Amino acid sequence: MKALRRLSSFVYADVAALREHRPSRTEVVAALCTNRGLQAVVLYRISRLLWQKHVVVAPSILTRLVQMLYGIDISYKAEIGPGCVIFHGFGLVVASYVKVGRGAVLHQGVTLGTRSYSRMSEDTPDGLPTVGDHVFIGAGAKILGNVIVGDNAVIGANAVVVSSVPAGHTAVGVPAIKRPRSEGKHYATERNPSGDTAI
Prior knowledge:
Elements: H1 2-21, H2 28-34, H3 36-52, H4 58-70, E1 73-74, E2 79-80, E3 85-87, E4 93-94, E5 99-100, E6 105-107, E7 111-113, E8 130-131, E9 136-137, E10 142-144, E11 148-149, E12 154-155, E13 160-161, E14 169-172, E15 177-180
Parallel strand pairs: 1-4, 2-5, 3-6, 4-7, 5-8, 6-9, 7-10, 8-11, 9-12, 10-13, 12-14
Antiparallel strand pairs: 14-15
Helix pairs in contact: 1-3, 3-4
C-alpha cells in the first residue's frame, strides 16, 4: 500500500505540473486520456514500481509499449522525480540509472545517457547524468556521461552537454557553453500569452 500511495502522489504531481504548464488544459481526466507525455510518464512509473517489487517481464513489456505507442524510451531503471512534464516526447531517451529530480521539463528528441556504448549499470565507466530539480531541457538536447545538471538550470535546444552545469545556469551550443541565467527568472514563469513555455 505504501508503494501505491507513493505512485499515486508522483502521478498527482505529474498532472499538477502539466496543468501548471498548460493552464488551458485543466481537466485531469482529459489530460490522463489524451496527453501522450503524461501517459508515457505514468506507464514508466508503473513499470518502475513493478521492477522495484521484483516483478519480471511486465516492466519490459510496458517499456516496449511506450516505445511503440509514443516513440519514447524511458528505462524503468531510471529514477525520475515527481512533477515531470514531457512535451511532444517523440525520440526522447532516458537511459537506465539516469537520475532526474523533481519538476523536470523534457522535450522531444532529448537524450540522457552515456557517451559510449557499454553495458548499462549504476557504475558504468563512462558515467550517467544526474539532473537536478526544476530543470528545463529543450528539444533535441543531449546530456551525456558523468554530468551533473544543477537545480533550475536550462539546457537549450540541440545543446550537447558533456560537462556539469551549475545550478541556475543556461547551457547552449555544441559542445554546450554555460552562462548564468538572469536573476529572478525561472523557466516556469517565462511564458508567452498562450501558456506555452518559452526560453
